[in-house]
Amino acid sequence: MQPEPNDARWLAAAARLASRGRPLSRPNPAVGCILVKEGRVVARGWTREGGRPHAEAAALDHAGEAARGATAYVTLEPCAHRSLRGPACADRLIEAGVPRVVVGVEDPDPRTAGEGIARLSAAGIAAALLPIPEAEASLAGYLTRATRGRPHVTLKLATSLDGCIAMADGQSQWITCAAARAHVHSRRALTDAILVGGGTWRADKPRVDVRLPGLEDRSPQRILLTRGIPPDGVKVINAPGQIDRLDGVQYLYVEGGAQVAASFLAEDLVDRIELYRAPIVIGAGKHALGDIGLASLGEAHGRWTLAEQRQLGSDTYEAYSRTR
């Protein structure tokens, strides 16, 4: 199947739509689907709470007969396996009379893994992969779980211009402005779990929840990195490498402190850094990171790529993706 001029644009829109399902779609990935006919959107769908309905099913249910003749843009390959919770999405697309399906990412699940596209093609549907960065990024947690056996890890840092996270006496509230702090809560709402270190827990008693109106129910599971006794309602791991034991966690948000951040970087477990930088200089304060184990300056280069940048009030937000 040859791509059409607007295929990448519609698929990128489906990837943005997928974020509506995250993280409530767990244990399933958050997938987006858009049905387009004659240049107009017929219906949209994303994976709903608990993983059902799938994005394709939600879009097809909304479209009804209008789905016939439409192109389906879906971020992840339509599933090919039937379950007790519903029919395979590949079969639903065939039955709906969709003549064309554009897929962003092949499903690594061995129950589908190319079979979804093959089934569509066998039914006479023009179906093909169109790999775009937006689709892969929207499925980062699911894909990291499938390929690395662990959650996708985002390290959040909030610093002064000179890289400090607190005054020398530990005072840290607040380095960043209200707009930046609200943005942090919006990022928390997209994660399955937030991790902090035992020192941060004891010193700051952080709530590590979501406090944006209407999104309070998105507060993630709390994880503590410590060898101490776990507080009530908080899961504990003893080392960064144990994040593979966090069942049901696709997206892990690491907030601190400095030694925790350094330990995750030292073990190369960070997939994304989100840096909030305030226009202040502290001087003799507490620095954002400890030793991350680099033997030479050359080892520091080529590891990170700027993925996003914006202004949040007086502060600057930058996101960097790990180059692997």
UniProtKB/TrEMBL annotation:
GO molecular function: 5-amino-6-(5-phosphoribosylamino)uracil reductase activity; diaminohydroxyphosphoribosylaminopyrimidine deaminase activity
Note on how the cofactor is bound: Binds 1 zinc ion.
Source organism: Qipengyuania profundimaris
The keyword rRNA-binding is assigned to this record: no
Pfam family, one: RibD_C
Record keywords: Hydrolase, Metal-binding, Multifunctional enzyme, NADP, Oxidoreductase, Riboflavin biosynthesis, Zinc
Catalytic activity, EC: 3.5.4.26, 1.1.1.193
CMP/dCMP-type deaminase domain span: 5-120
Cofactor needs: Zn(2+)
Name this polypeptide is given: Riboflavin biosynthesis protein RibD
The protein's annotated pathway: Cofactor biosynthesis; riboflavin biosynthesis; 5-amino-6-(D-ribitylamino)uracil from GTP: step 2/4; Cofactor biosynthesis; riboflavin biosynthesis; 5-amino-6-(D-ribitylamino)uracil from GTP: step 3/4
Catalytic activity: 2,5-diamino-6-hydroxy-4-(5-phosphoribosylamino)-pyrimidine + H2O + H(+) = 5-amino-6-(5-phospho-D-ribosylamino)uracil + NH4(+); 5-amino-6-(5-phospho-D-ribitylamino)uracil + NADP(+) = 5-amino-6-(5-phospho-D-ribosylamino)uracil + NADPH + H(+)
Function: Converts 2,5-diamino-6-(ribosylamino)-4(3h)-pyrimidinone 5'-phosphate into 5-amino-6-(ribosylamino)-2,4(1h,3h)-pyrimidinedione 5'-phosphate.
Statement: the UniProt record of this protein carries the keyword Translocase: no
Stated family: In the C-terminal section; belongs to the HTP reductase family. In the N-terminal section; belongs to the cytidine and deoxycytidylate deaminase family.
InterPro entries with a match to the protein in the record: CMP_dCMP_dom, Cytidine_deaminase-like, DHFR-like_dom_sf, Eubact_RibD, RibDG_C, Riboflavin_Biosynth_HTPR
